[in-house]
């Protein structure tokens, strides 16, 4: 099958590759770019383990063709940490509040939470639950994931307030 050249920015760095029109974004990320943080849990757009951030939106990368990401800006879990290498507040929240057990859903969950807090920096518990409704976790019962996102919202809110003072 003929291949198409794609060029995009992933975690702040320009990348390119040759892909078949049918290549899914998740396969391009994992197999060609070696970014194995986004997981494949279902391949049917149900579980959210493959969630990445594309042009400011959470997308399930098993339902997007790599060619559709051409020219885009993409963030995966590998690009979520702070520039100085310290954990992002959401990652810290998952650690502090025990927001994971097996960890399989965690990259997608954190990447989704990253966008959720940009869309709504002070979400209510209900808004958090609604915001992560597309991401399934088979282990935690969600309670501590919600607490982890609340932790991050508080921390990011406090940092913003401090910067404004
Ligand atoms: S692998 Fe994409 S939603 Fe499950
Ligand atoms: S921590 Fe195991 S699937 Fe979420």
Summarize the structure in short.
The chain is of the alpha+beta class. Helices cover 36% and strands 15% of the residues.
Describe the model:
By secondary structure, this protein is an alpha+beta fold. Helices cover 36% and strands 15% of the residues. A five-stranded mixed β-sheet has the order 2-1-5-3-4, sandwiched between helices. A hairpin with a 2-residue loop joins strand 1 (4-10) and strand 2. Helix 2 packs across helix 5 (143-164). It is globular and about 55 Å long. The relative contact order is 0.15. One FE2/S2 (inorganic) cluster is lined by residues 100-106, 137-140.
Task: Report the biggest beta sheet as strand number plus sense, adding barrel if it closes.
Answer: 5 strands, mixed
Number of helices: 5
The ligands found in this model are: FE2/S2 (inorganic) cluster
- Rg is 16 Å
Number of E-state strands: 5
Strands of the biggest beta sheet: in what spatial order? Answer: 2-1-5-3-4
Q: List SSEs in N-to-C order.
A: EEHEEEHHHH
- The 3D shape can be described as globular
Strand content: 15-25%
Q: How much helicity do the residues have? A: 25-40%
Structural class: alpha+beta
Report the end-to-end length measured between terminal Cα atoms: 58 Å
- The average pLDDT is 97
Low-confidence region ranges: none
């Amino acid at each position: 099958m003929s291949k198409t050249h794609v060029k995009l920015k992933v975690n702040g760095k320009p990348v390119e590759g040759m892909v078949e029109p049918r290549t899914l974004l998740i396969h391009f990320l994992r197999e060609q770019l070696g970014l194995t943080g986004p997981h494949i849990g279902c391949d049917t757009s149900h579980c959210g383990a493959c969630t990445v951030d594309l042009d400011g939106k959470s997308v399930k990368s098993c339902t997007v063709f790599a060619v559709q990401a051409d020219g885009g800006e993409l963030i995966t879990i590998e690009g979520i940490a702070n520039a100085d290498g310290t954990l992002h507040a959401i990652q810290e929240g998952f650690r502090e509040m025990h927001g994971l057990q097996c960890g399989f859903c965690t990259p997608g969950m954190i990447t989704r939470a990253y966008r959720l807090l940009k869309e709504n920096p002070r979400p209510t518990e209900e808004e958090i639950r609604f915001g992560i409704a597309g991401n399934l976790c088979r282990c935690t019962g969600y309670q501590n994931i919600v607490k982890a996102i609340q932790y991050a919202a508080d921390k990011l809110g406090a940092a913003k307030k401090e910067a404004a003072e």
